[in-house]
Amino acid sequence: MTECKKPSNLKHCNCSYPCDKKGTCCDCLRSHLKNRELPACCFPNDIEKTYDRSFEKFAQLVKEGKV
Question: What does the domain layout of the chain look like in residue ranges?
Fold first, then answer.
């Protein structure tokens, strides 16, 4: 099994929500996917701060060429 790179992940994590999964990408992704969401790192900073991380919001941003 590959070693977790949490210290490195934290340097690049743009998530503004305080939670215990920050920097542990596999746990973060699993948590969001079960809610039909993507993690903060999939969104531009201005959108991430709205906490709308839905698949629908992501699709809208793709359609608009913002991601």
Answer: 18-63
